[in-house]
Amino acid sequence: MKTEDVYKFEKIQGQLQGLYNEIGTLSKKTPNDPLNKFKLKFINQILISANEFLDGKYKPFQGFEKFEDDELPTNSDVTIILEQYLTCLENFRTDNVSTKDSAYGWFWLVDGKASNLKTTTPNKLKFT
Amino acid sequence: MSLVRPRLTDFHNVPVTQDAVEFAIPFLDEDIPLYVDPFLLWKSPSMQDNSLHLSITNSFNHLGYLFNNGHQHDALETLIRASECDEVGLGVSKAKTGKRIGEKMGGSILEIFKNIPQLTKSGFTHFEEIQLLVDGFSRDRVSDIACNFIQSFLIDFTIEQCEKHGIPIEKTKLENVYDIKANKFKEEITDLPVNPITKKPLLLVPKRWLRSIPWINSDDYFKSFYSTNIHIDGAEFPERVKLLSFNRDNYDIVKTYTSIKEKQFEHCKQDPLFTQIPITSAKGKLNTITKLPTGKTDNADRKYEDNVCQLMSSLMYPHLDFAQEQSRTDSGVLIRDLIFYNNKSVDFLKEIYTDFNCKQIVIELKNVHEITREHIFQLNRYLNDQFGKFGIIITRNPPLKKILKNTIDLWSGQRRCILILDDSDLKMMTQVFETKQRLPIEIIKKKYAEFTRACPA
Known about the structure:
- The complex is a heterodimer.
- By secondary structure, chain A is mainly α.
- Chain A has one domain.
- Chain A has 3 helices and 3 strands, in the order H-H-H-E-E-E.
- Chain A has helices spanning 3-29, 37-53, 75-95; strands at 97-99, 106-110, 113-119.
- Chain A has a 3-stranded antiparallel β-sheet.
- The mean pLDDT of chain A is 91.
- Chain B is of the alpha/beta class.
- Chain B has 2 domains: 8-267, no CATH class; 279-454, 3-Layer(aba) Sandwich (Restriction Endonuclease).
- In chain B, helix 16 links the parallel strand 8 (390-394) and strand 9.
- In chain B, helix 10 crosses helix 11 (251-263).
- The longest helix of chain B has 22 residues, at 47-68.
- Chain A binds chain B through residues 30, 32-37, 68, 70-72, and chain B through 348, 428, 431-432, 435, 437-438, 442-443, 445-446, 449-450.
């Protein structure tokens, strides 16, 4: 990871989380409604950027890159995929952060070493 | 090539939808069931329409002038020539030709210019009032007279629209063009589209002028004005002829009615050529469809077909114009199907137009539990040069794998595409019709995409 990758990653993760919350709400109300073209265009953009980080073992599903416009994915289809991507992004983050001896908290690994870029505790280590 | 219920544009392979053009697309073998309402020209915000209305009224009042100044014969001849306008193809006639009025009728129309002093003095402002004064003067006459007096404008409009959309025009003779300077009808040779079957010239009419009933009409006069304002409670209603002669004797009452209608002009709207069913009604239709049993129990097949027909024609609007519902028999079985014009309005429609030569889309309705090979072959036999090689079957349940395989094999062997939609697709179409997130036609596109993906590369 480079410093700019960290910023990019954080942006994508934030955006995906936002989409997940929104589409998740829609999906609770009308799970079988197809998503409109406008929303789909932006979701696909973000998925493509996320794919840049999630190659190989991190990729949620082999063979899935983005939604096909003419297949009319429904709200619940989109919610499921977004959730999978969020989990995989979190896995990726967990593997790229660490603690430091000199400071309290979690930091991003830049070029293999703990940097000064602060981040949150990996989800799986959080007390719930 | 013969099309089902051919329209001028489809005949010339000009792919436009009715919704996208300014004129009413004429059918080649029947009339458009709407009329030109001069009142729409009067109320229009456009000065051009207003002046055309003025010119219609002036030309009509000129007949009165002629009649009252000793040129009775000229007036009668002009009126009779003005009374029918076949070129515009409006009305309910199946044969696209109408009859002019007779001399007796013409005479009684012209008489009112003499017998009603207000008209003798200043003529009509809305000549539709004649419907309230003369027996047998119907709404199609109003429309035809209006069209004839502004035929010169309609010629220009037609040529302009034909050039814009690439509809072929050719030299042809018009018998009845009104010369506003000489106040006479004359013949004119000009370039116009012609009906390829009868070789007669066609005139296009702006759809903003069309209504199914004129704003000023005798039924409305009787119901909303006469019976509430003039009629004395308890008295017997006069019969039609008596009412008309009452109107002639009391022209002021007719004038009052017209001025009320003038004040209500905002309610006077053009009638669309096709009206979509509202969302609630679409949902109701879908509910009826899904609850129907399969097969022929209690006429379920008939009900299924009626409901699907109404639902589909509305769902597909404005991307596909509905042409006709028709029945045919194939090996002793009655088959009902829906025909749509393919106007290439969506990218996938363009594709099926070029790949499958599909000028009209056939949708076959099958209220059966399970679609069989025989059903596929029935449609396949029907897909000839007329329709191209693309068809859709609407049925109740998703088809079995072997049937889908069958349609793929038809593609491999004969390059034919048969899509099968079921209740769940109709449901989804209605859902997107309601939520407006997507277009119902995209569901068919999705089916088409799935089909092409399943085809061997």
